[in-house]
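Q: I'm teaching a short session on how sequence maps to structure, and I want students to see two examples side by side rather than one. Could you give me a first protein with its sequence written out and its structure tokens following it? Keep the formatting plain so it prints cleanly on a handout.
A: Of course. Example one:
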Amino acid sequence: MLRRAARCARKAAEQTDPQLKEDYLGLQQKRLSLARCFQTSERLSDFVYGLSQKRQPAQIRQQSAGAILSDGRCSSARHRTSCRA
């Protein structure tokens, strides 16, 4: 996106027609805005992925401990026989 924005800026500088120059500069601004959106999205995805990696060991421990479901059954198949009342 940033390369395309730079290309729009070069095209704007080459123009003699004020309307075309304005169009290219407007397009450059839209490309820059879109690039910022993509960067924000990538940073947010990286942040969420990092959180999920930190939480994953806790979830694995919970599953291996045989968490009890709301109806009293075990969620872990290997613990079902020991959890039955």
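Q: Perfect. Now a second example for contrast.
A: Example two:
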Amino acid sequence: MLIIALEYKSTVNKYIKENLLTLLKDSLTPQDWQLLYMISEFLTPFEKATQKLQGDNVTLNQVLPIIDILIKHMDRALVCLFSFLTYKN
């Protein structure tokens, strides 16, 4: 659903603009969109790993390298998130 929202960002923004009084605090700021994009980018490797490792025939030799990749990905994402939150505040 997040990917769909990002694909239809302009349509969502138009809806928000037209219904701003009704939505009040539920509207999305440019920073919110940036955070949604970051979340989507963060989750993509987990989706790919899940698809690759699903099934009954997966071995530990296949799982361990992917776990290492995901841990490195998480470390990089934490640095990006910290930068984003520091910049936002």
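Q: What should students look for in example two?
A: Point them to this: Residues 2-88 form one domain. Also worth mentioning: The mean pLDDT is 89.
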